[in-house]
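Researcher: Quick test of sequence recovery. Tokens follow.
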């Protein structure tokens, strides 16, 4: 066998590399692993198969030799969840790596229940099961999302019973695996699509019961958290009464069966029509009773004297109305008399203060060329045209100039004020 690390000048033979790989792999020893059997192929007394990780897309090949197979449970098959004691085995001739199985058994039911209970406690502590966060289902959904197996009894039950109750109901169906390793991925994807659909008002996840281990996908943490995060109300119709999957706990409504889910998501058209008829009958009865009661009240009011003979109201008020009319006329006359007296008094004062009263006593007003009253002899030099206002009109005059002293001329015209005619 060549020593040292293979180089371009001194490469290893393929056999040397294979032997070194087998030597390194043999030193790894045995290890217990857990997974799901996705392939179980007997060949003679031996079995060749594949084991898949429960959460990740990782697969390993394994072989069970006849000496070991005789010690394994006889009911092992594809789809089983198992734990196995394996040791890496490098086949030198074919250059392949596989796992040699030394022991294999089903995962104990107690182990699964313990894990589920631990996950249940964790999710409950986070509030995912709190009734306060659950959403109410719409009375009559526009469109119902349905996640179920293709051509399954669950699908037929939901569609048939929902349409019997409400013939016009519309479904948006997504077919997925409902058991096995593809279930979680496909259901989560379908749930996201329906939750984003603008017309889907409620989503039903239906399976219709089954073996406990086949329903483990509906207790998967990824699926449960996706259902809790959805904004659309979710109905869980897995149909397993004994061991309820965690999806039932986080769903907004749990239905015992797919048929029960159909009855819970849509109303019964016959029942609703009966209810409408009953409401209309109660409304008619209540209105008729109210109208009859008011008719009786009106009849009772009309029977009273105050409404049966209305003339007494006018008669009883006739004398009072006459007194009011007389009193009103008296007050109007008094107001008019007082106003006339005040008017005569104001007229007397006005006449006493008027310039016309002065003119009536023989006085006159002399106006110059500009029409202004003369107040000084200097305002009317000789030759000035004057206008003399008297009681009944005006007289044109011409000034002869000022008079030096009071004398005969003033006495000759004692009634002229400010000038001489």
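Model:
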């Amino acid at each position: 066998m060549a020593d040292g690390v293979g180089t371009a000048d001194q490469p290893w033979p393929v056999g040397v590399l294979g032997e070194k790989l087998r030597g390194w792999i043999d030193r790894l020893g045995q290890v217990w692993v857990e997974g799901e059997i996705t392939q179980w192929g007997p060949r003679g007394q031996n079995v060749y198969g594949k084991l898949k990780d429960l959460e990740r897309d990782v697969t390993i090949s394994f072989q069970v030799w006849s000496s070991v197979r005789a010690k394994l449970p006889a009911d092992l098959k594809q789809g089983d969840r198992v734990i196995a004691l394996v040791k890496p085995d490098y086949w030198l001739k074919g250059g392949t790596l596989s796992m040699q199985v030394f022991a294999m058994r089903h995962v104990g039911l107690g182990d699964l229940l313990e894990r589920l209970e631990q996950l249940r406690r964790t999710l409950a502590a986070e509030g995912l099961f709190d009734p306060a966060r659950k959403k109410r289902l719409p009375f009559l959904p526009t469109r119902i999302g349905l996640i179920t197996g293709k051509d399954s009894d669950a699908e037929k039950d939901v569609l048939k019973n929902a349409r019997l109750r409400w013939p016009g109901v519309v479904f948006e169906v997504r077919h997925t695996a409902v058991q096995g390793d593809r279930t979680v991925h496909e259901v989560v994807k379908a749930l996201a699509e329906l939750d984003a659909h603008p017309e889907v008002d409620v989503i039903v996840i239906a399976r219709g019961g089954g073996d406990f281990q086949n329903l483990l996908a509906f207790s998967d943490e990824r699926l449960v958290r996706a259902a809790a995060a959805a904004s659309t109300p979710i109905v869980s119709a897995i149909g397993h009464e004994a061991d309820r999957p965690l999806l039932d706990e986080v769903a907004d409504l749990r239905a015992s069966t797919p048929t029960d889910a159909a009855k819970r998501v849509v109303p019964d058209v016959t029942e609703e029509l009966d209810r409408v008829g009953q409401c209309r009958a109660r409304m008619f009865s209540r209105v008729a009773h109210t109208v009859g009661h008011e008719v009786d009240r009106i009849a009772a009011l009309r029977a009273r004297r105050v409404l049966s003979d209305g003339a007494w109201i006018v008669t009883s008020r006739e004398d009072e109305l006459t007194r009011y009319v007389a009193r009103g006329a008296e007050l109007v006359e008094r107001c008019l008399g007082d106003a006339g007296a005040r008017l005569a008094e104001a007229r007397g004062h006005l006449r006493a203060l008027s310039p016309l009263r002065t003119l009536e006593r023989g006085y006159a007003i002399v106006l110059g060329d500009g029409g202004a009253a003369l107040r000084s002899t200097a305002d009317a030099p000789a030759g000035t045209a004057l206008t003399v206002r008297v009681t009944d009109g005006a007289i044109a005059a011409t000034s002869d100039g000022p008079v030096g002293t009071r004398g005969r001329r003033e006495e000759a015209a004692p009634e002229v004020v400010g000038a001489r005619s």
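Confidence is low (pLDDT under 50) at residues 405-421.
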